[in-house]
Amino acid sequence: MLFNSLHFVAFFIVVTTLYFSLPHKLRWVLLLLSSFYFYMAFLPVYVLILLVTIVIDYYAGIYIAKSHGRKRKLYLIVSLIANIGFLSFFKYYDFLVGSIDELFNVHIPYMRDLWLSSRIIVWNNWVNSHLNLIGTDLPILQNIILPIGLSFHTFQAMSYTIEVYRGNQKPEKKFGIYALYVMFYPQLVAGPIERPQNVIHQFYEKHDFNYDRAVSGLRLILWGMVKKVVIADRLAIYDNAIFSNLSHHSAPTLIMASIFGPIQVYCDFSAYSDIAIGAARVMGFELMTNFRRPLFAKSFQELWQRWHISLTSWFRDYLFFPLGGSRRKGMLRGAFNLIFVFVVSGLWHGANWCFVLWGFTHGILLVVERLIKPFTSKFVRFLGSASTAITTVFIFLMFGFSNAMFVSKDLHEVGGYYKNILTWKSGGLYKGEPPTAIIYCIIVVAILFIAEYTMEYKPQIKLLGHKNVVVRYTGYVMLLTLLLLIGVFNGGQFVYFQF
After folding, report:
1. Which end of the chain has the lower number of beta carbons within 10 A, N or C?
2. 345-360 b/e (C-beta count within 10 Å ≥ 16 → b)
């Protein structure tokens, strides 16, 4: 069920109305059944995968809390293996098998020649017999469909057992409440990736209807819908035409796509988070903030403190710090930890070498930024007040140029993209269909930056939250008019559903 559909509008109204109509003790049952329905609207059979992992993690949490010593770690490992195993099978099996086949098909003849020339007959026979087993005999399961949001609810489930193991969360005794923690429909498919300490206790609390809180949630939903339907899906008309064949376009076209691309991804993904947080807020639940206007970041470190906060904080707490972080075991180990975490983050986004390269690139950029910080600090002081604008534009452009790795089908496309820019392949701007596509893109980008600039630097100026009722409702009318006039109502799927 897509947030940007009439199906969801009807679902949200019915569920919210029933939620406040039912006695408190039955509300969690309504939310759980509604969440199952919400997920099964995509592909019913895959709810079974969630049920299996929910059962495993529920009992793992209980046994972790009851056990001591090695047994506690054993139950945690069982839980992690189950979650990572399902994720690996559905998301990475074909990628791993295809990579192994490609590696050995390309490199084995050369390797065999080296072994033959060195006349190590025993080794040669052993290698031949074993490498032939590794080759193309492994099946590619092309008919496997990746369950919607698998990476999101897998990481949320893993955070539960890890926090129970660390002693930061008591094991949930009610199976239904734990299932609701994993299945809670607003953030089930694309986050935010919540922690048990923030959410589980809220299912026990009674939430009476609160007008101000409901209006705040509905405003967030409205702004999320504008970001998705008006901005992201409008930019997608232009971007998809370019990104579907990056290496064949001119340098000006690719630069324009590098500007629009990250804005499209940001608006699409943050729109989902806004609608999820808003829908939960109407019912009285508070989910964590997932984006804080990352396009205004003045450094790469700040960018990742503002972008997909629930995921970056997950990797920080459950991978980066356990590896030693950046302060322990020396500078080189810290740099390795940072790059490794971002490579894993790239793989989290998709089973493609382009995502690995994207993660590796951002890891390198963060390491380089830390190394040259003493020099850049002097440069920023020299620029004075102009430094904010210059560094913000620079980080945005660098982020935009790296976006090609994020959207490309393969490394060949990535290479063609950068080659055409560096060699300045001539040609005009691709105007797409209709011819006014670029004009629409410029309009919606201007709307976004005006709105977010105000939120970032002029928070006292509030349109939707203005005290004057005329000003407030003028804002509502303006956003609704934008939705109706230039919104793209084709039921476009959210970008992060594929992750």
Report:
1. N
2. bbbbbbbbbbbbbbbb
Q: Which residues of 394-411 are buried (b: 16+ CB within 10 A; e: fewer)?
A: ebbebbbbbbbbbbbeee
Determine the Cα–Cα distance for residues 360 and 345; give it in Å rounded to an integer: 9
- Hey, how many other C-beta atoms are within 10 angstroms of the C-beta on 247? 17
Amino acid at 235: L
Rg (CA), the chain: 25
Give CA–CA dist 499/350, Å, rounded. 6
For tokens 């956003």, the residue is 479
pLDDT digits (tens, 9 = 90+) for 221-233: 999 999 999 999 8
**Residue 219, pLDDT score:** 93
Instruction: Give the angle subtended at the CA of 169 by the CAs of 165 and 321, to the nearest 5°.
Output: 55
CA distance 159 to 179: 14
Pair 293, 274: CB distance under 8 Å: no
Hey, how many other C-beta atoms are within 10 angstroms of the C-beta on 328? 11
pLDDT band, very low/low/confident/very high, at 428 (cuts 50, 70, 90): low
* Angle CA 137–138–144, to nearest 5: 140
